[in-house]
Amino acid sequence: MEPIINKVSQSGLMEINLEDLYQKGDRVVFDMKNHLFQELILREKDFREFVKNENWSLYKDKFVAIICSSDAIVPTWAYMLLTVALEPFAKKIFFGTIENLEIILFQESLDKLDIHPFSEQRVVIKGCSKVAVPVSAYVELTRLLRPIAKSIMYGEPCSTVPLYKKKI
Predict the structure, then answer these.
(1) Contact 155/127 with Cβ under 8 angstroms?
(2) Are residues 81 and 125 in the same domain?
(3) In tens digits, what is the pLDDT along the chain, a chain of 168 residues?
(4) What is the three-class DSSP state of 82?
(5) Domain of 17, in residue numbers
(6) Eight-class DSSP state of 131
(7) 113: helix, coil or strand?
(8) Residue 8 covered by a domain
(9) Closest CA to 19 of 100, 104, 123, 127
(10) Pairwise CA distance, residues 75 & 154, whole Å
(11) 3 state SS of 124
(12) Which of 35, 44, 133, 141 has the fewest CB atoms in 10 Å of its CB?
């Protein structure tokens, strides 16, 4: 009987799992609508009182996405005042949706990624993950690898979709 040979491990493929770039921490939304009069009007005195008395430590080490889900016109300074209150506690504060926050967090991680080990290598960008990886992270990683990699594939080493192969 011949031994079973793991051809995937012998293939020389380098795998990148974007899940490894996921920044750990709770993500929360702070919706301004809940602090507006009739969910439409910002009353400066009431809002400043809320900001002064709120327990901001509840946001300690959390990623906070600030939004206003109503059609209210909220002055820019109100978002800035929230940021002043949240900054000592939150891990990161962002204006926009949780989805936008996730895009920014992955972009930060990709900006720090050392891509040099992938130079002239056959690279597989892993497709399945336990966390939601935004499509933008796959696009950015592909953009970073394209000039340096020998080839780029998507999926699992045993079943890949070819994306790019350097011309010789």
Answers:
(1) yes
(2) no
(3) 765 544 444 457 999 999 999 999 999 999 999 999 888 899 999 999 999 999 999 999 999 999 999 999 899 999 999 999 999 999 999 999 999 999 999 999 999 999 999 999 999 999 888 888 999 999 999 999 999 999 999 998 778 899 999 987
(4) helix
(5) 13-23+102-165
(6) S
(7) coil
(8) no
(9) 127
(10) 44
(11) strand
(12) 44
Q: What is the DSSP track for 34-102?
A: GGSBTTTB--HHHHHHHHHHS-GGGGTT-EEEEE--SS----HHHHHHHHHHHTTT-SEEEES-HHHHH
2 falls within a domain? no
Per the structure, the count of domains in the chain is: 2
Q: Angle of helix 76-86 relative to helix 44-53, nearest 10 degrees?
A: 10
The DSSP bridge partners found for residue 123 are 14, 152
- Residue whose tokens read 């967090």: 105
The burial class, CB within 10 Å (0-12 / 13-18 / 19+), for 71 is exposed
49 lies in a domain?
yes
